[in-house]
């Protein structure tokens, strides 16, 4: 099953602003740090140089991640799920292991810290993906514990 990532306009704008910052001022700042550390001399034992290079690598990885996400996402409101089938980008209310919970099935970038977020590739994500509202499924954790999940409500994140 190929999943489509839906981003709200707000999430897309937030990610685009982060990308613009990383590609502009942040990139210039890290280059300045690297040049200053390089000017200090011996690069083998220069902790500031190695830290700046590591920071640059992480920043470039984040830039690639943001570009990929923005290029491969749909912006707007996903089509209504007439059939009540759970899919990526949905906020799910469920009883998980006996406790009521609410979480987003998708990407952390969509929710910006408002909800617990589980990837559709996580154990719980794989268990609920494609399930209908009202159904109960179970999955086994890495420690061997079986967790039951009863879907009580689901709607697309707005």
UniProtKB/TrEMBL annotation:
Listed GO MF terms: DNA binding; RNA polymerase binding
Primary role: Necessary for efficient RNA polymerase transcription elongation past template-encoded arresting sites. The arresting sites in DNA have the property of trapping a certain fraction of elongating RNA polymerases that pass through, resulting in locked ternary complexes. Cleavage of the nascent transcript by cleavage factors such as GreA or GreB allows the resumption of elongation from the new 3'terminus. GreA releases sequences of 2 to 3 nucleotides.
Record-level GO BP terms: DNA-templated transcription elongation; regulation of DNA-templated transcription elongation
Domain called Transcription elongation factor GreA/GreB C-terminal: residue spans: 84-156
Keyword DNA-binding belongs to the record: yes
HAMAP family: GreA_GreB
Boundaries of every Transcription elongation factor GreA/GreB N-terminal domain copy: 6-75
InterPro entries for the chain: GreA/GreB_C_sf, TF_GreA/GreB_CS, Tscrpt_elong_fac_GreA/B, Tscrpt_elong_fac_GreA/B_C, Tscrpt_elong_fac_GreA/B_fam, Tscrpt_elong_fac_GreA/B_N, Tscrpt_elong_fac_GreA/B_N_sf
Keyword DNA-binding: yes
Family membership: Belongs to the GreA/GreB family.
The protein, known as: Transcription elongation factor GreA
Alphabetical UniProt keywords: DNA-binding, Transcription, Transcription regulation
